[in-house]
Each structure stands twice: as C-alpha cells, then as structure tokens.
Amino acid sequence: MNRILSAKSILEVRNIKTQSIFWGFLLLFLTLSLVLTVTVNDFTTQFTNSVAIYIFMAISSYVLIGKNFNYCIHFGLTRGEFMTASILSRVQNVIVMALINIIILVSVNQILTSFSIEHFNIFSWSSIFTDHSLIVTNMWIDFCVGILVSSAAMLSGALYYKWGLVGPISVIVVLILATSLPFIRSNLFDFFERVYSEQALASFGWLLIVSIVLWACTYLLLNRVDLKRE
Amino acid sequence: MTVVQMKNVSKKIKNHMILDNLNFDFEENQIVGFLGKNGSGKTSLMKIIAGEWSSTSGQVYVNDQKPFNNKKVLAKVCFIQEGNNFPVDMKISKLLKLCRNFYPNWNQEVAESLLELFDLDRTKKIKELSKGMESAVGVMVGISSRCEITIFDEPYIGMDANARKKFYQYLLNDYIEVPRTIIFSTHLIDEVSSLFQKVYVINKGRLLLDIQTDELKEKVYAITGPTKEIEEIKNKFTILEEKHFMGNGEIIVFDQSEKEHVMPENCKRNALNMQDIIVHVTEKGEQIL
Amino acid sequence: MKLDVNSEVPIFQQVAEIISNEILNNNILEGQQVPSTNEIAEFYQINPATARKGLNILVEDEILYKRRGIGMFVKEGATRKILQQRKNEFTHVFLKPLLEEARRLGISIDEVKKLIDKQGE
C-alpha cells in the first residue's frame, strides 16, 4: 500500500498547482461574467462549471500515462500498482472537484437570490433532475461523468503510449462511426430520454460500469507494453 | 547464487534485431561491466534485466524469477540510466521520501553524505539542475538504494572528471561495505575497468566476450617486431589489426589458446589498455565469434 | 607503490608484487598481519576479488598464510623466500635484456663486465 500511495504522489506532483490555476480561472470568469451581467443587464448569462470539470479531467487523465508511466515503472512499480495508483488519484480528483463545484453552486445561488439577480444562471444538474436535492444530484452526476471521461481519456493516453497518434485517433473515428449508426443512436437517445423522464439518477451508475471496462482495457494494454524510449 | 540468467534471449523491435540470441549467467554480488558501442544493445539488455522490457524470445531469470512486471524482482532492482530517471517537477527532498518507500534497503545516511559530496541542494527541482547535477542525483539514488541488484547505464553524463572519480570511489567503498550485484555500462572504460570483476562485450546485439576482467589482457594484446617474424606467428591468432611500417609490424591479436606462445626472438608482446582492447574487439567482433 | 592499470602485468599480480616488496623492505615483518582484501581494494580502487586473487598468489607461494576469521599473516621465512624468488628471476628479468641490448649495440661481454665494475664503484 505504501508503494501505491508513493506512486500516487508521483502522479500528483503538480496537482495542487494545476487545480489552483483551474479553479482560479474558473472563479475569475464566473465573477467577471456575473459583474458584467449585473452592470450591463440586458442579456442572460448561462454559466457551466460541470463541463469545465469534465474537460479538465479529460486532459489531465490523457496526459497522466505519457507523463508518469515511465517514471513509475522505472521506480520499480508493477503495471498493476501503477493502474491502482492512477485510478485512486482520478477518483480522488473527481470527488474533490465535484465537492468544490457544489460549494460554488450553493454560494452563487445564495448570491443570486440575496441580490435578486435574474439574468444570471449557473448550470446545475438539479435543474434537470428536479426530484433530488442539489447536492446529491450534482455530486453523483459529476462523479459518474467525470470518471467516465477520465477513464476514456486514460485509455486514449495508453493507446497513444503504445501506438502513437494512430491509437487515440482510431478510437475517436470508431466512436464517431458508432454514434452515427442509427441503431446505436436511437438506443442511446431512448436511454437518455428514459433517464430523464423517469428521473432515474441511478442509471448514471452505468457510466461507472463502462469506466471499469475502459480501465480494464487500459490495464491490459499497459500490462504488456515495453517502456518507451525517451 | 546465480543472479542473472539468459537463455537464448532475443529482442526484436519492428523487425529489427536489437538483441540476438544471448546466453550467459553470472553469480550474485559481483561488479559486472557491460561494454559496447552506442546502439550495441547494452541498454536494451539492462531494460530487460530490470523488468522494463520483455524479451521477444528466450528466457530471462533474475533471482530465478522472470523480471518483466514481476514485483518480486522489481522491488530488488534499482535502475539508473543516462537521464530521465525522475519526474522533472519533483524536488530532491520529495524524491528522497519516495526512495525510502520504494527501496527496502534505502540508507538515508549514505544519501545524506552523497548529497553533501556532490553539493546537491535538496530544495531544488530536478528540472532546475544542470545535466551533471541531475546525473549526480541518479548516482546518489543508485548507491543509497543499496538494492540487491543495482544497474547503472552510463549514469555520469555531464559529470566532470572529479565528480566521476568521487562516484567510482564511493560506489566501490559502499560495495565493499555491503556487497551486492552491480551492473555497469560505460564508454569511459579505463576509468572504471579496475572495478569490474567480469565484463561482457556486446556488439550489434550479440555477445562477443564474456570474460573475467583479469583475463582480458591475456587474451587481447599487441605483438610488435620485424615484419618477417610477425608473418611467421600470425596464423596462431585471430588478428584484430595489422600494421606494417619500415620493415616492422604490429599486430593486435585475440589469443584463444590456453598456453602461452613462444615469441620469435625479436618480437615483443605489449599490453593494451582496456579501452583499446574493447575498441579492437568490437571492431572485429564477427571474427571472434 | 602505485598500481598501473594499463600495465601488461595483470592487476592481481601487481598487488602480489606490492605486498612482497613491502615484506622485502621490512615494512611488514614476518608474523605480522597484511592489509585485508577490502583495505587493499579500497586503497587502490580495485575490485575486491582482484585484491583477493593477488593475496591468494602469495598464499600459494607460501609467503602468506590465512588465519580463519582474522586475516592473512606473513609466514616465517617469507623474506628469504621472496629473496630467493627474485634472485631466480634476476637473470631472466635483468641480465638477459641487458645482454641482448649489448649485443645489438656491439658491446662485448668483457666490456659489459667492465661497465658493471665501474658502475659498482
């Protein structure tokens, strides 16, 4: 366990710094647009933290393998230990980000009501899934989507590590082709509609199952790969 | 106990033979030198022993275990290569903490004294160091890890002669204190050859020589004398180089016989230094095999 | 005495020579302990196995003897033995090359003898 936690700390050498920069910029933009909306007052601003979080998770998970795999294996970790450390680090990251997001959501909403600002709207999953509380809804959905995005990005990172650009590009092509197939498309559409109409938050758990499959693929890929030459 | 064992080991990358049917083994607690030109396959061989690369065919055993992705081997190996050993954003102080967790035999006292010896500032990040300083960090980790198997792949890039000397000295003294298996690859053969108990000469992925360092000078040497006399004894050896000038000649020979040859009257046998021996052996490697 | 890594004499043999020289010079007396393998290795910066090989030559030549767990000691009569060895080698190592060079230069044996007498004074 000590080895895995140490490996995790290699993955997170610059984590606090990049997180601070990310949230710093996000809060800066949030404040700016809030101020602009209030002062100009003739348009409605829609602000979305969640998407920013997913993009952040995608990018940081994509570079994770390319940046750290060599060092960790070189330190004497097994591929399995590296995977465990990576997953732990990703899960922790998503939870922390989802929590920060909730704090921002609650405080911005507080500000909006106390100053009765009407033209500003910050996106919350609870506006779609109205049956559940803001905290539970956002926490759960941000977690599930964040993990899915992260595991998909990690797999792309691993594909890139193994085959170069051909890896992730072929995955994207396959995804685009797959989603354009009418059969898959209609099924996906039905699925989301059902989730919405039934307010079935639990269905997001499927994303976690998909993530586990993607992680397993990443592991199988890394398990046989030689360390890349610098 | 045999620490490294290679049976018909080959490594192919994209149809290119990197290592070609290697067969050798050696006992634990020796300092072993891997010598050869750039691109000879030394680094690949070390990566396979360290469990970072798999072999394409053949069997590799380190401590009777297959090393690739095997925790039992990986935890006992410390592999320091030319560069890129540690994350560039990491501070030395943080690195020391990690080493304590990764290397079971880590010796903090040795680490401290090496930090001082190489004048390393532990508050600095790896990327803030000069190439020589970065190499010194690698050397520091390699020695302090006191791993059962420590592998150095030209770890001294950018270090000046003075620092390199300190490194060899410290390594030998620490090895005497705590004997362990040390595998060392180098270009600067003359600097370290007296530390090696055995050397392996590798060229184009093939093993040319597997020999006790002591015996190397008995196998490869120069003979100088009148051309006429040189011609007489030439056929007793594998000739690695031949030069004639003004009726005199010099041949560099590879002597495969067990007994000593009787030199013709005016011929003299001259020793070569290790660097020259290795250069001659690798240049004409195919003839030895 | 210094080790010469580039010499044609193997390092372990040089180690043996250094030790026997020190015995001959009475720097290490008969019955005294000689430096250990590790001390020699550390001092000359050579592999301990090489140092051990050097000491073992002297054990084979019955100049040193091992005391289990303690170390190696100079045998009684070692000085005489080394002296005898060196005398045996004298002809081969010094006299023969001298006469060879003399012949090349056209110096007769008598002339060599005279030169030796002169140098000896």
Automatic annotation (TrEMBL), chain A:
<protein>
    <submittedName>
        <fullName>Uncharacterized protein</fullName>
    </submittedName>
</protein>
UniProtKB/TrEMBL annotation, chain B:
<keyword id="KW-0813">Transport</keyword>
<dbReference type="InterPro" id="IPR051782">
    <property type="entry name" value="ABC_Transporter_VariousFunc"/>
</dbReference>
<protein>
    <recommendedName>
        <fullName>ABC transporter domain-containing protein</fullName>
    </recommendedName>
</protein>
<dbReference type="Pfam" id="PF00005">
    <property type="entry name" value="ABC_tran"/>
</dbReference>
<dbReference type="InterPro" id="IPR027417">
    <property type="entry name" value="P-loop_NTPase"/>
</dbReference>
<keyword id="KW-0067">ATP-binding</keyword>
<dbReference type="GO" id="GO:0016887">
    <property type="term" value="F:ATP hydrolysis activity"/>
</dbReference>
<dbReference type="InterPro" id="IPR003439">
    <property type="entry name" value="ABC_transporter-like_ATP-bd"/>
</dbReference>
<feature type="domain" description="ABC transporter">
    <location>
        <begin position="4"/>
        <end position="229"/>
    </location>
</feature>
<keyword id="KW-0547">Nucleotide-binding</keyword>
<dbReference type="GO" id="GO:0005524">
    <property type="term" value="F:ATP binding"/>
</dbReference>
<dbReference type="InterPro" id="IPR003593">
    <property type="entry name" value="AAA+_ATPase"/>
</dbReference>
UniProtKB/TrEMBL annotation, chain C:
<keyword id="KW-0238">DNA-binding</keyword>
<dbReference type="GO" id="GO:0003677">
    <property type="term" value="F:DNA binding"/>
</dbReference>
<dbReference type="InterPro" id="IPR036390">
    <property type="entry name" value="WH_DNA-bd_sf"/>
</dbReference>
<dbReference type="GO" id="GO:0003700">
    <property type="term" value="F:DNA-binding transcription factor activity"/>
</dbReference>
<feature type="domain" description="HTH gntR-type">
    <location>
        <begin position="9"/>
        <end position="77"/>
    </location>
</feature>
<keyword id="KW-0804">Transcription</keyword>
<dbReference type="InterPro" id="IPR036388">
    <property type="entry name" value="WH-like_DNA-bd_sf"/>
</dbReference>
<keyword id="KW-0805">Transcription regulation</keyword>
<protein>
    <submittedName>
        <fullName>GntR family transcriptional regulator</fullName>
    </submittedName>
</protein>
<dbReference type="InterPro" id="IPR000524">
    <property type="entry name" value="Tscrpt_reg_HTH_GntR"/>
</dbReference>
<dbReference type="Pfam" id="PF00392">
    <property type="entry name" value="GntR"/>
</dbReference>
